[in-house]
């Protein structure tokens, strides 16, 4: 049992608790944050793209989303790069999917993928030919054919009307495991410090009582 002998030790433990609460809150916010929009260019086509870069937004994707126009899309961001497995669960319309590497080069294209409204086990999955990818772009069905998108087409994120690297300005969401470890270490160190300080004061009091 930890004995709090004065207000200063209570403050130390309170700070550790507040750090834990703050970390948890940041994590929850990151998981539920809404989509934000960027402007991108693929080949000669300018697009308004919604960015899905958190587990929550990536899992939902375009499910139950209103139909896309030819100048709209959704970009899934994978950091670090990985084999991105996609499906068409609860989609309302067919789409084209395009896989990219970290430099915006096309790795794989799937065209006119049909929606899947049945059981999960009945939905086909698409993994971009099992290549590690940094981005997957979902656009309306027919987009690839209409604009003659091919392996020479390149994806660019536009900032201030100037083409830049496809790497987005937003930082990846830290993994919850790292946050939890940091909070745990802070809490343990605080408790050890409090306990040691309390023991020393108790020993000092016992010595004074014996005198």
Rough shape? globular
Note the beta-strand portion: 25-35%
Name the CATH superfamily assignment of the largest domain: Protein of unknown function DUF192
Number of domains: 2
Helical residue percent band: 25-40%
Number of β-strand runs: 10
Elements, N to C (H/E) = HEEHEEEEEEHEEH
Rg, alpha carbons? 26 Å
Residue stretches low in confidence (pLDDT < 50, at least 5 long) are 1-33, 160-165, 167-180
Task: Note the gap between the termini.
Answer: 27 Å
The main pleated sheet reads as:
8 strands, mixed
Sequence of strands across the biggest β-sheet: 6-5-8-3-2-1-9-10
Q: Would you give the CATH topology of the largest domain?
A: Jelly Rolls
Top CATH class of the largest domain: Mainly Beta
CATH A-level architecture of the largest domain: Sandwich
Category from helices, strands and their pairing: alpha+beta
Number of helices: 4
Mean pLDDT over all positions: 74
Structural write-up:
It is a single chain. By secondary structure, the protein is of the alpha+beta class. It folds into two domains: 7-29 and 176-210; 35-164, Protein of unknown function DUF192 (Jelly Rolls, Sandwich), CATH 2.60.120.1140. Helix content is 34%, strand content 29%. A hairpin with a 2-residue loop joins β9 (155-159) and β10. α1 packs antiparallel against α4 (176-210). Mean pLDDT is 74; it is low at 1-33, 160-165 and 167-180.
Give a nutshell description of this structure.
The protein is an alpha+beta fold and 211 residues long.
């Amino acid at each position: 049992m930890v004995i709090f002998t004065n207000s200063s030790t209570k403050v130390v433990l309170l700070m550790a608790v507040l750090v834990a609460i703050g970390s948890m809150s940041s994590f929850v916010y990151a998981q539920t944050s809404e989509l934000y929009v960027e402007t991108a260019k693929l080949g000669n086509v300018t697009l308004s793209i919604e960015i899905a870069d958190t587990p929550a937004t990536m899992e939902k994707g375009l499910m139950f989303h209103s139909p896309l126009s030819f100048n709209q899309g959704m970009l899934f961001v994978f950091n670090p790069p990985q084999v991105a497995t996609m499906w068409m669960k609860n989609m309302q319309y067919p789409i084209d999917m395009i896989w990219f590497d970290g430099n915006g080069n096309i790795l794989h294209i799937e065209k006119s993928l049909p929606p899947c409204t049945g059981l999960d086990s009945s939905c086909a999955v698409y993994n971009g030919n099992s290549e590690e990818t940094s981005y997957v772009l979902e656009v309306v069905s027919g987009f690839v054919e209409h604009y003659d998108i091919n392996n020479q087409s390149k994806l660019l994120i536009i900032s201030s009307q100037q083409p830049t690297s496809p790497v987005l300005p937003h930082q990846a969401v830290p993994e919850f495991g790292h946050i939890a470890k940091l909070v745990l270490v802070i809490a343990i160190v605080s408790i050890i410090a409090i306990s040691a300080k309390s023991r020393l004061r108790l020993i000092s009091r016992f010595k004074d009582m014996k005198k």
